Amino acid sequence: MRETKGNRLNITIYGRRNVGKSTIFNLILGTDFSIVSNIKGTTTDSIRKAMELEPFGAISLVDSAGFDDINTLGKLRVEKTKKTLMQAEVALFICDSEGLKEDDFKFLELIKNFKIPSILIINKQDEEKISKEKLEEAKKHFNSYILTSAKNVTRDDFLKLLKNSLRLVLEDAKNTPVSAIPENIQKGDLVILVIPLDKAAPKGRLILPQVQILRELLDKGCVAVCVGIDELEYAIKNSITRPKLVIVDSQVFGAVEKIIPQDMLLTSFSCLFANLKGDIDEFVTSANKLDNLQDNDKILILESCTHHATDDDIGRVKIPNLIKKYTGKNVIFEHFSGCDFPDVSTYSLVVHCGACMTNRKEILNRIKICKELNVPITNYGIVISKCLGILERAIEVFKIDTQPEK
Ligand SMILES: Nc1nc2c(ncn2[C@@H]2O[C@H](COP(=O)(O)OP(=O)(O)OP(=O)(O)O)[C@@H](O)[C@H]2O)c(=O)[nH]1
Ligand SMILES: [Mg+2]
């Protein structure tokens, strides 16, 4: 499986127009992908390219339009550049020998608000060297800096410098969980994955969360068994050892809960993703707000990909039906799909998809915006478990003390 956008380290290049962002983008990629010219405003839209950057693994490298662009169209470009801040995990901030100017400081403020570790790249050092004073003033705002001339440096030399800086800035950002598998699931544990092949399942393949979790279980040395719901009972009865955990597609949570023993750990793919790509505590607190919903309250179902919905689509049909049944209220559902984040201020609750197509950073930023607006935000797996009355059970696997017994 190729690594998806949501699992790649997002490195985004920012700077004023003409400082050499696209030159640096191409230099890192090792190919002329972005257009380079001495006309200000050459890059008009952000451009994303996937690559492998050892030892950091799969990355998404993004070139952006200059944040100092002017006039009507230019301002739209700046807005597009600002949107990339939601996903950026590392910022490469480019300037030239002029050092940091007013526009740089304004944008830097945004980068700091989004808590993006950033590397300053002072470019065009062949033309004119930056003064000592300007360098001192500029570098104190960044986690690391590089002096270079992107036009003349070799790719190897530049990548060495870049990797050193990346190591430094990523050291500080170590708090991201790297595995979707809860800590107390250990090597040798038997884990059963229940994968229903209903109408919504894509033909001939498994969906991304299923593949990712299966791969992570194998990486961890777990014994992973995949079954459809009809084979689950047989698999449990005939397993060589007692399953430690059963992972289900949220849609069959209710059915599986009735089949497996009460004391067996049970969770869903999207609960695991909620933990990997979000804030499970926030999602649980928000799901509990369902208990206070009133008639005509609005709920936003938010999906980060634009798949074509089927008749029994989880976000369009199944979740709204479950929520209506659980609350008994006449709630209004609205839907939004895509990479933008809409105005959520008028909603009583936002229900986010499992977010397999986007990164943890973006979901945490979305949660932050919702919190600032006092709008609760939860996700598919958590809200489904809540409606089925099994929320506590679905999140138990995250709570178990991982300390070894004395
Ligand atoms: N002398 C010199 N020129 C450079 C260097 N890096 C880039 N340039 C030139 O600077 C100009 C702008 O480079 P780009 O890479 O297009 O700059 P950009 O920041 O992407 O510009 P916009 O897309 O307009 O925002 C081009 O003419 C490049 O050849 C460098 O290290 N030294
Ligand atoms: Mg450019």
Key traits:
406 residues, alpha/beta, Rossmann fold, 4-stranded parallel β-sheet, binds guanosine-5'-triphosphate
Describe this structure in words.
This protein is an alpha/beta fold and 406 residues long. The chain has a 6-stranded mixed beta sheet, covered by helices on one side. Helix 6 (208-219) links the parallel strand 7 and strand 8. The chain is globular, with a radius of gyration of 24 Å. The protein starts with 8 loop residues before the first strand and ends in a 7-residue tail after the last helix. Residues 402-406 have low confidence and may be disordered. The chain has 14 helices and 14 strands. The longest helix has 18 residues, at 155-172. 36% of the residues lie in helices and 18% in strands. The chain has 3 domains: 5-172, Rossmann fold (3-Layer(aba) Sandwich); 190-272, Rossmann fold (3-Layer(aba) Sandwich), CATH 3.40.50.11420; 279-387, Rossmann fold, CATH 3.40.50.11410. Residues 15, 17-23, 36-38, 40-43, 66, 123-124, 126-127, 149-151 line the site of guanosine-5'-triphosphate (GTP).
